[in-house]
Write the structure tokens for this entry.
Amino acid sequence: MNSALLYLGGIMLVGVALFHGVAGQRILISPLLRQRAGMMDDAMPRTMIQFGWQVGTVLTLLPALYLFLVASGETGGSTAMVLAIGLSFVAMGLANAAMTRLKHPGGFVLTTTGLVVLTSLYI
């Protein structure tokens, strides 16, 4: 496995997580939480939407941590695990691109990140 590409993939995932957490909160979640119509009038749905959004942010950091540990030699890297991380981000990126008809940058970013991780297995 190519350590430089593993580090790059990890850095890209940290960037994805930071952008998701900060910009997504500002652009999507906060305006949604300010609505007080229907179920958004209740505190529980507002809390769960906030929580669920940030869980996604934190969960993006876990594969980044794994990639950093493998790249640094702190742990023996499982080819299957790196393959699964790469394939999952390519799949999420392609799904995002298809679902948003290429109108959301996540499709490109997630797919590219996954491809970097996959390339680390072959260079």
User: Anything to note?
Assistant: The chain has a mean pLDDT of 95. The chain has four helices and no strands.
